[in-house]
Structure formats: C-alpha cells, structure tokens
Amino acid sequence: MNINGAGTKALVVLSGGQDSTTCLYWAIDRFGRDNVSTLTFDYGQRHRIEIECARTVAAAAGVANACLPIDTFAALGGDALTDDAIAVRQELDADSGLPNTFVPGRNLVFLTFAAAYAWQRDIDELVTGVAQTDYSGYPDCREETIEALQASLRLGMERDFTIHTPLMHLSKKQTVEMAVALGGLEAMALTHTCYNGERPPCGQCPACILRARGFSEAGIDDPLPGAA
Ligand SMILES: [Zn+2]
Is 43:15 a contact under the CB 8 Å cutoff? Predict the structure, then answer.
C-alpha cells in the first residue's frame, strides 16, 4: 500500500532496537521498500552492538542504512547510556523524575540531523519510533514535543517535513502486534533492546522488562535468542 503515491521517499531513524525496526516495517508498508532508507546515529552509546544491529536489520529488510557520528553526547556525560561509569538504575532520579538512561536532547538532535540529511536528499517524510505510552517517560518522546519540533524544522529548513510517529500511542503489546502484522517479527531476532548491552539480553534492566512484557501480553514468542 502506498497511500502517498509512488515515489514519496521516507527516512527512518533506525537505532537497531525493537521500536525503530517496527517503524521500518511500517515505512516499507506505507511508502514501498524502494522509497525507504534508514539513518543510524553513532552518538557514543556504550553499546556499540546497537549500530551493528541497525545495519543488520536494514540489510535484512533490503533498505539502505547510513550511520552518522555525533560524539557530543558522550562528551557531555552524565547519563547511563553514554557514560561507562554510570550503571542503569530502575528507579527514577529524585530531582528530575526521569530515569538515568535519559540522554537530554537526544531525540531533538537526532531528528534535526535526520531532517538535515533528508533535506539534502529531497526526502520530506521522517519516521521515528518514539512513543509516549507505556515507556520510560522521556519528555522528548511526547507528541507535543514532536509536533513542536516538526513545526521548527519546517520553518528552519523551509521544507514540508512530516515526522511520522507510528508508535506514539501504542502500548508495547500493540507494538509487537504491529510488527507481526507488517511481517517484521523475524527481524526482531536481529534487534537490540537491553540497556546493559548484553546478548543474550540480561532480562533485568528496564528495557528488557518492557520488551518481555510486550511480547508476553501479545502472546507472541520473542524470536531474539535468549529472550524471556
Ligand atoms: Zn537488559
């Protein structure tokens, strides 16, 4: 199905995780495989395996993948995803009310660079796996934030960008169901979710727990080797 007409090109921000991989299959369904490409950010994440997973997922789906380096987040430090000295915690920070896996500004910067990359390639449709339901409470995943950013990008680059967020209002269970419906279940075996960078996954961190709950509630076996 291509409700936007032939030739509408889309860029998927692909992290190598379950959600962005589901979005990749959503984009292929909506825009057609030949019109979809993916962009991955090397932001100094501790778990380099994510970048490799993104490449593998894109190759398996038959779409191009580019990786852009942004090492500034690691230089900023202070979060558990880029700083080796900080362990992932379950509980929220008492002051900010946010998990310590929150990388301030990450999605804002990712989508801004994605738009700049898309601008150069005549792509107007951007796709991201952010969601405000059932997730970690990151403020840059909220619909309000994405709508405001979309308005800024349109103004700032003089281009009619649309940021598609197919998972915005879905629970993890519904995200699993979407992946299955779009033929993306097998690709889930290639994704990476664990905040501790473990493969097979640790099963204990917030990301592993959310993922396991989603598959369990959907009544689907997670094809990821070693997943609960
Ligand atoms: Zn884990």
Answer: no
For residue 6, how far is its CA from the centre of ligand 1 (angstroms)? Answer: 40
Rounded to two decimals, the pTM is 0.90
φ, ψ for residue 171, nearest 5 deg: -80, 170
Do residues 79 and 136 lie in contact, with contact meaning Cβ atoms separated by under 8 Å? no
Single out the residue of 29, 17, 16, 6 nearest to residue 164, CA to CA.
Answer: 29
Closest-CA residue to 83 (of 66, 98, 60, 103): 103
Q: Which of 74-78, 129-133, 183-187 has the highest mean pLDDT?
A: 183-187
Residue carrying the six token digits 């950010």: 41
How remote is the CA of residue 194 from the centroid of ligand 1, in Å?
3
39 pairs with which residues across the strands? 13, 66
User: From the CA of 199, how far away is ligand 1's center (Å)?
Assistant: 9
Distance CA 16, CA 133 (A): 20
Please report which confidence band the pLDDT of residue 6 belongs to, taking 50, 70 and 90 as the band edges. low
Instruction: Looking at the chain, list the stretches that DSSP marks H as alpha helix, in order from N- to C-terminal side.
Output: 18-31, 49-61, 72-76, 106-120, 143-157, 172-181, 206-218
Distance 75 CA to ligand 1 centre (A): 24
Amino acid at 84: D
pLDDT tops 90 at residue 152 = yes
